[in-house]
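Give me the fold.
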Amino acid sequence: MKNVGITACSNGLKKESAPNYRRLIQTLQDFGCNVKESSCIFEKDSPFSGSGEQRACQLMKLFSDNETEEIYDVSGGDMANQVLDLLDYNKIAKSKATFWGYSDLTTVINALYTATGKSSVLYQIRNIVSEYGKLQQRRYLNRDELFNISYSFIQGSYTEGVVVGGNIRCFLKLAGTKYFPSLEGKILLLEGLGGQVPQMVTYLSQLKQLGAFKKVNGILLGTFTKMEENDCKPNMEELVKLYAGESIPIIKTPDIGHNSNAKAIKIGEKHIFKI
């Protein structure tokens, strides 16, 4: 039996999502998981599922449980970085548990890597009860399939390095803080939900001003939902080439992002990409 935890470090789930959440719990139990639920999951008369201290405490409770193997954060939104100063990174470093989350949890995932060297999984566990539920359940049970992403090179033909990053907006919340990972020799993963060309120009300008494109070994682009839905011009690939230059390897994958059919990737682990 696998011991897993469920929590929400960002915005609490809305109460109307409770039936889907219960399906998630039941599905995990059907897979033989012993599910331990945080007390901070749903909104409590505000976007908060609890105070920053309460949400951090619930996450630490799961990391401190010697039986916990995987921790699934079911939230997203804006507030996950509130917990960063409230976590015990020494205890987390000793924990065998692996953290899973996406979107706003990009902040937690990269902070965990920076502070402890631990890798985490960029993936939303609620995908297994989405419209692609059957597909995602099969992937959940077959981890090789879950982590096997397809990709193509926009420029270059080979790159390797530890992958950092995630959601571009949320990753940049860490800039200037002690939780922002070193970018030297890394592969920078970028994906996005909202935002169109003006927002992407802002984010890419900030990354350039941080010296990111002179430090990383390559850039991995996931999906950019609103940009692609609106067929924005220039598109994200064109914008990244403009800001990063012609010498840096740039890779595109349709498998990482906010779509409910997305696959998973380990942040904080070395990956090799080649033609």
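The domain at 152-274 is CATH 3.50.30.60 (Glucose Oxidase; domain 1).
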